[in-house]
Every structure is written in C-alpha cells, then in structure tokens.
Amino acid sequence: MTNKKQGSLVFVGTGMRMAGQLTPIAQSYIESFDIVIAAVPNIFTRKWLQGVAKEYVCLNDHYDDTKVEGKTRRDTYRRMADTILKEMRAGKKVCAAFYGHPGIFACISHMAIAEAREEGYEAHMEPGISALDCLVADLGIDPGSHGMQSMESTQFMIYKRTLDPTALLILWQVGIAGDLTLKRFDTEPAHLQILVNKLAQYYPLDHEVILYEAATDPLEKTRIDKLRLGDLPKMSYKQITTLVIPPAQTLEKDQAIIDELNALAALRAQVQQAA
C-alpha cells in the first residue's frame, strides 16, 4: 500500500447561500487548513473566505482561459485542478471550496481527488448543500413521489436518451444548452428550439415547465418562472438556470408484479399460521 505523503486535500461546499448553508465541518477545514483555494461566484462569500483563511487563492480568473484560441472549459477545469494539486504536492493541507456541493457538476473535485489518491496523498470530499437541495425546498417537490430524472441539458440533446414522462425531469445548465465549443457561457434561441423539439417527443408543447435559479445571497430573489414548454426559446437565461419539467403522465400500475407480490405475502402468512 502506498504510504501517505505530507500534504492533504479536502473539497468542501459553501452551499448556495453561504449564510446558514455552510456546514460546521466545512467551516472547520476552511479555518484550519494551510490554504483555501476557492471557486465561488458570490463576492460576499469570497470576501468571507479571504478573511478567515490562513492563505487564500481565487480560481475565478481561470475561466478567462476560454478566451484563448484553442482552449475550452475542459482546459479551465484542468488548470483549476492543477492549481489545487500543486499546493498539495508542496506539502500543504489544502481546502478547496466550491459553491453548492463540491461534487455535483464539478468535475474538478473528482479529478483532483483521484489523482491525489493515486499519488499517495490523503484526499476526500465533504458534502454541501447543492442547487438540487434548494430546488426541492423552494419548489416544494419531493423527488420520491414520482421518481426523478436528472441530466445536463447539452448531454441530453446530443445523446440518445429515453425519458420517462411519468417522472420529474431536471435539466441542468440549460443556460448553455447546445454549446459544443465548450467555450461559451450562454445559449441562443436556436439551440433552445432544438431542445424543445426533442422534449416535444415526450411532452406536449403546452406542458407547464419551470425555470429555476437558486438565490445565492440574502439580497437575491429565487427565480421560479412557470411557462409553456414551447415558450422556452423566448426566455432569458443565466449559466446557472435549471429547467424543471414536472410529470406529464400518470403512473400506470404493473398489475402482474402487484399480484406476484401479494401472492408472496399470502404464502408467507400461510407459513406463519402453520408454524
């Protein structure tokens, strides 16, 4: 077994709204580790991190890499991971802080943790409050009532996926839907129309859908816009906009399975009576 090296890595989430959504264990790592390397959009969260961290590095400027000819978001994520790993390899205890949950739509954390462990370093992730957690609370949706499907918008568009219209569908990052260049941070009506056309194979165009954006600070309002599926290309979007599509069909019972389960229950009851 590989001996653990000096230096370690932990990824933590700051939640969507840092105030009240930062877990005690995440805060303890932020305050006690040698360096905090962060990628958070909210300026108040960044200032707080900078104030409590022993040393602070902001990764937000790495997104400018996409402006360089030939570079994409993949290059940005790779450089972010490399920046984090460099400090760990220097023997520091590194806390990488990302907004929301550090492992949800955040390939950097999975990439860096896997490489750190391969090299013999201690590395792990602590959960955080994600956009999905806020969505469930803000919209009053229980994913367990009908089941839930969750996927990235462009991934849904370019791969052959089969949807279940009896279950909740959540499409993430609809604000960059259809971008194959991996350089843009927005979308356009033509891309959204392609998305609508594909969704129309499963849902009527007048089916009510929701555009959702979690509030990230006390002054910001949560976005909950309800509209027709067919009207999606007309709307405005941010990179963080999420498309929520409630079930369009009712669940149909599988009577054969129900009968089989009831038969097993009846048999079990007979055995217990005979014992």
Task: Summarize this entry quickly.
With 275 residues, the chain is α/β, with parallel strands linked by helices. It has helices spanning 18-21, 24-32, 43-52, 73-89, 107-118, 131-139, 143-146, 153-158, 189-199, 255-274; strands at 8-13, 35-39, 56-58, 93-98, 122-125, 148-152, 168-172, 208-213, 223-228, 242-245.
Compile the SSE list and pairings.
Elements: E1 8-13, H1 18-21, H2 24-32, E2 35-39, H3 43-52, E3 56-58, H4 73-89, E4 93-98, H5 107-118, E5 122-125, H6 131-139, H7 143-146, E6 148-152, H8 153-158, E7 168-172, H9 189-199, E8 208-213, E9 223-228, E10 242-245, H10 255-274
Parallel strand pairs: 1-4, 1-5, 2-3, 2-4, 6-7
Antiparallel strand pairs: 7-10, 8-9, 8-10
Helix pairs in contact: 4-5
Organism: Undibacterium umbellatum
Pfam family, one: TP_methylase
Domain Tetrapyrrole methylase: 9-227
| SS class | alpha/beta
Q: Gyration radius, to the nearest Å?
A: 23 Å
Write the CATH fold name of the largest domain: Cobalt-precorrin-4 Transmethylase, domain 1
How is the quaternary structure best described?
A: single chain
CATH second-level architecture of the largest domain: 3-Layer(aba) Sandwich
DSSP summary: helix tally? 10
How many E-type strands? 10
If strands are numbered along the chain, what order do they take across the biggest sheet?
A: 3-2-4-1-5
Strand content: 15-25%
**Can you tell me the CATH class of the largest domain?**
Alpha Beta
Helix content: 25-40%
Distance between the termini: 53 Å
